[in-house]
């Protein structure tokens, strides 16, 4: 070992002894030690054993001092080490007060991070990036790097005063610009009044049985917000990133999505499988819509075999150039976890892992994520109002409803008394947009009309649950 490296390690081990001595002598820094340091941060084997015992005492609510530590080791031979009485006695004598203990804690933690980074560097050099598994290995390395660099165990507590001052600046913006919402607009005023837009960091689940139009609605959300951001991008100041929205579609190709977008914006039914003679008015409308849509900052990935790590990597890649304001995933149950986790999980556990990771990604990039989900078939067995979806109807739900900030359902509206039953396979369909869970607001129903032939939703009115 290099002499300088050896000298640095000896210095760190000495700091470990002083920190342990602070615990034995009930220093005022005791809480800081447990908050900032873990077993892996200790380099000397004996020190690691003693800190492990200190953790046990703390968890059991027992007092830790010189005598209690000696008595514990006397009774637990499996944790004894050579000449532990003398070693603990020497440690106990090292404490001379609270001076510099915080600095020692910080130095031990920094040295631990440095060691992990050195090991990480060696792992990179030793990693074989074959064609088939290169992407997954890169993702795992990236995740490990983020774990190391964020390896500060404790976040500082904030006083309500500090939090309020920070929140007040945000509130002032809202009060002075009352027409602006804090989140990404959906394009439906009744819905935006409830949500104040889709909020950064939120995971929104949009679920329904097949054929009701959940993909169409999510595309409507995407286009409505992109239309606003296209205008805002024209007035960017120097240094500002252009705003953009993203869609990951594992079920529908990008040309199909493009066809739906163009149909919804032009108001003209497009069906490549159906022969039609186009009028001049229709041709003009389509041409005009294409001209407008070209400027919309919408990015689509129609890879059919996406994993959760692909989603994270592609959002990160895009966020280096754009300010991502909305992500749509169609759909959640088609996503996959990494191969090394698949072997140890059943499908429900996989979906739970996916929803949990999506929530983390939403918070990491401060972007609302709308994940489309399927409902179980049991909802079809119910009748009348009881046919409305509920949280337990989410297929392979696992922790979906726990991780989500909002859970929304689409449901064909039942006719009111005296009204004729609508033909759900016709052109215009009455649909209930049900907000079944809303962590930051009310649960309610927004009535929408779905024009199937052009894949577009229009809002009507709001009805309280």
Brief digest:
The chain has 16 helices and nine strands.
Describe this structure in words.
With 465 residues, the chain is an alpha/beta fold. The protein has helices at residues 3-24, 30-36, 45-60, 66-75, 84-92, 101-126, 134-149, 160-176, 189-195, 214-233, 254-266, 280-293, 308-319, 339-342, 347-365, 400-403, and strands at 203-208, 243-249, 298-301, 323-330, 369-374, 406-412, 428-438, 444-451, 456-464. The protein has a nine-stranded mixed β-sheet with strand order 3-2-4-5-1-6-7-8-9, with helices on both faces. Helix 1 runs parallel beside helix 3, helix 10 (214-233) crosses helix 11 (254-266) and helix 13 runs parallel beside helix 15. The longest helix has 26 residues, at 101-126. The termini are far apart. The relative contact order is 0.10. The model is unreliable at 422-426 (pLDDT under 50).
Shape: elongated
N-to-C span: 71 Å
Low-confidence stretches: 422-426
Helix percentage: 40-55%
The main β sheet shows up as: 9 strands, mixed
Strand content: 5-15%
Mean pLDDT: 80
Series of secondary-structure elements, N-terminal to C-terminal: HHHHHHHHHEHEHHEHEHHEHEEEE
DSSP summary, beta strand count:
9
- Side by side, the strands of the main sheet go 3-2-4-5-1-6-7-8-9
Number of DSSP helical runs: 16
In angstroms, what is the radius of gyration? 29 Å
Based on helices, strands and strand pairing, what is the structural class? Answer: alpha/beta
């Amino acid at each position: 070992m290099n002499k300088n490296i050896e000298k640095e390690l000896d210095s760190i081990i000495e700091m470990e002894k002083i920190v342990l001595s602070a615990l034995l002598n009930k220093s005022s820094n005791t809480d800081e030690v447990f908050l900032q340091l873990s077993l892996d941060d200790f380099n000397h084997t004996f020190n690691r054993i003693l800190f492990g015992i200190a953790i046990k005492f703390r968890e059991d609510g027992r007092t830790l001092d010189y005598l209690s530590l000696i008595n514990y080791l006397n009774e637990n031979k499996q944790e004894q080490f050579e000449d532990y009485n003398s070693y603990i006695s020497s440690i106990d004598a090292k404490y001379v007060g609270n001076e510099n203990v915080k600095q020692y804690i910080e130095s031990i933690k920094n040295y631990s991070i440095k060691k992990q980074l050195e090991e990480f560097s060696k792992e990179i050099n030793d990693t074989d990036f074959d064609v088939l598994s290169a992407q997954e290995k890169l993702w795992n390395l990236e995740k490990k790097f983020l774990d190391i660099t964020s390896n500060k165990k404790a976040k500082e507590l904030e006083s309500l005063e500090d939090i309020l001052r920070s929140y007040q600046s945000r509130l002032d913006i809202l009060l002075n610009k009352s027409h602006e919402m804090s989140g990404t607009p959906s394009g439906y005023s009744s819905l935006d009044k409830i949500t104040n837009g889709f909020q950064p960091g939120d995971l929104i689940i949009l679920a329904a049985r097949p054929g009701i139009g959940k993909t169409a609605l999510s595309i409507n959300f995407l286009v409505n917000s992109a239309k606003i951001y296209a205008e805002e991008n024209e007035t960017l100041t120097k240094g500002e990133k252009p705003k953009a929205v993203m869609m990951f579609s594992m079920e529908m190709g990008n040309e199909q999505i493009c066809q739906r977008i163009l149909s919804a914006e032009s108001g003209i039914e497009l069906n490549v499988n159906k022969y039609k003679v186009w009028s001049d008015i229709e041709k003009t409308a389509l041409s005009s819509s294409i001209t407008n849509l070209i400027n919309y900052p919408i990015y689509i990935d129609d890879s059919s075999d996406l994993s959760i790590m692909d989603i994270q990597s592609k959002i990160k890649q895009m966020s280096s150039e754009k300010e991502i304001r909305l992500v749509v995933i169609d759909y959640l149950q088609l996503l996959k976890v990494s191969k090394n986790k698949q072997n140890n999980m059943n499908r429900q556990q996989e979906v739970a892992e996916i929803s949990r990771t999506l929530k983390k990604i939403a918070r990491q990039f401060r972007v609302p994520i709308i994940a489309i989900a399927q409902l179980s078939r049991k909802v079809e067995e119910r009748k009348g109002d009881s046919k409305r979806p509920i949280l337990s109807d989410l297929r392979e739900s696992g922790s979906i409803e726990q991780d989500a900030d909002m859970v929304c359902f689409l449901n064909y509206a039942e006719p009111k008394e005296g009204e004729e039953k609508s033909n759900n396979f016709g052109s215009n369909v009455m649909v209930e947009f049900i907000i079944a869970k809303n962590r930051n607001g009310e649960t309610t129903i927004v009535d929408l009309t779905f024009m199937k032939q052009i894949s577009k939703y229009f809002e009507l009115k709001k009805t309280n649950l």
